[in-house]
Specification:
Helices cover about 20% and strands about 25% of the residues. The chain has about 180 residues and is α+β, with helices and mostly antiparallel strands. The longest helix is centred in the first third of the chain and has 21 residues. The protein is globular, with a radius of gyration of 25 Å.
C-alpha cells in the first residue's frame, strides 16, 4: 500500500531528442544508515497500525508526505490495521534488499526488499526525500507474503525426464604426483 497518494516512482527522463538526461545512480549511504531508515520507517508504521494513531508516522515524513493527514494515512493502512499485522520482526531480522539504495533523477532515495520471516515475509518499498539535511519519508509500500518455501508447481515424480538420460559422464581425472626430494 502506498502511504502517499500520487507517489511517482521516478523513471529515466528523455529530452526532445530522445537522449537520456538522468538515470538513477547508486546512493552513497552506509549500511547502518540504510538499516536506520528501513527499520525506523517500518517500526513507525507498525506502531501507527497498532495504536491507530498515524501522527508520528506523518510527522517523520517529508513536507510533501506531511500533506497527508493522520486520518488519511489511517485510511490508507486500514486494511493492515484490521488484520492486526505485526511488523515487529523488522527490529531484529536482517533486511534483504532487492533494489539497492539509489538516488532517482528527482533526487529521492529509493530502495526495496524484504525481511525473510516465517510464516509471513514483510516486503517493502521505500522512497525518501531530502529535507533539512536528512532523508525523510516520502512513500511507503508494505505487504506480507508467505515466507515459507513453496512447493514446485509440478511434483518431481511427474516431471519430464530426458529421453537419453544414460549414465552421467565420468568426472575429469587429475593425477597428483608427489614431488621427489633432491639432495644437494
Amino acid at each position: 500500500m502506498t502511504a502517499s497518494p500520487g507517489v511517482a516512482w521516478a523513471q529515466t527522463k528523455k529530452t526532445d531528442k530522445g537522449d537520456k538526461v538522468h538515470a538513477a545512480r547508486p546512493a552513497s549511504i552506509d549500511r547502518n544508515g540504510v538499516l536506520i531508515l528501513i527499520r525506523g520507517t517500518l517500526l513507525a508504521l507498525d506502531q501507527a497500525n497498532k495504536t491507530g494513531n498515524y501522527t508520528v508516522l506523518r510527522d517523520l515524513g517529508s513536507p510533501n508526505f506531511q500533506a497527508n493527514s493522520a486520518a488519511g494515512l489511517g485510511d490508507v493502512f486500514a486494511n493492515q490495521r484490521k488484520q492486526a499485522l505485526d511488523f515487529g520482526a523488522v527490529a531484529v531480522l536482517e533486511p534483504q534488499l532487492t533494489l539497492l539504495p539509489q538516488i532517482e533523477p528527482n533526487g529521492m532515495l529509493h530502495m526495496a526488499g524484504f525481511f525473510p520471516s516465517v510464516p509471513m515475509q514483510v516486503n517493502f518499498e521505500l522512497l525518501f526525500e531530502p529535507a533539512n539535511r536528512q532523508w525523510k519519508i516520502y512513500g511507503v509500500s508494505v505487504n506480507l507474503t508467505s515466507g515459507s518455501p513453496q512447493a514446485p508447481a509440478t511434483p518431481v515424480a511427474e516431471q519430464q525426464k530426458p529421453d537419453d538420460a544414460g549414465p552421467p559422464p565420468d568426472a575429469p581425472s587429475m593425477a597428483v604426483v608427489p614431488k621427489t626430494k633432491t639432495k644437494p
